[in-house]
Amino acid sequence: MKPTNNFFAIIIFSVAIIFASCSNDDNDTMAQVRVNGSVLFDNGDDFNGDVDGDFTGNGGSASRTFIWLNNLSRADYNADITATAEGTFNILVLDADGNSVLNRSLNGATEPDSFSGVTDRGTSGVWSVTITLESFNGDGSFSMSEGD
After folding, report:
1. How many domains, the chain?
2. What is the mean pLDDT of the chain?
3. Does residue 16 belong to any structural domain of this protein?
4. How far apart are CA 103 and CA 126, in angstroms?
5. What CATH number does residue 110 fall under?
6. Domain enclosing residue 94, as ranges
7. What does the pLDDT look like over 47-68, one tens digit per residue?
8. Is the N-terminal amide bond of 3 cis, ω within 30° of 0?
């Protein structure tokens, strides 16, 4: 028995209904992280040299990890947010041995709204940086550069 055009139309219509029912148009919250002008969609992007990042959110949450080559044992960092509602920004930096050298957060709608400094001493090489936004509403920026 050969399928008819009606059979294919029913299949396509059914698939469209399934996809439409899975979308959530009532919840348009989002959070986005960019590093050196590139939006981070997946974990594992890698960067060399200075890192300049920014992020935005309208109540959404996201966590993105990228790899950063640091030839020194410390890094200079700063972060700044503009948020009128509660929500958090967190930066976690692990050295080449996987040890935490920085774990700092900023909370929306409270002071302070920025921080800067030098990470703890770590092993030079490939470091990982995780940016986490939780129910974040606003925008902000962060940067890192090799430091000793």
Report:
1. 1
2. 80
3. no
4. 17
5. 2.60.120.380
6. 28-147
7. 778 888 899 999 999 899 989 9
8. no
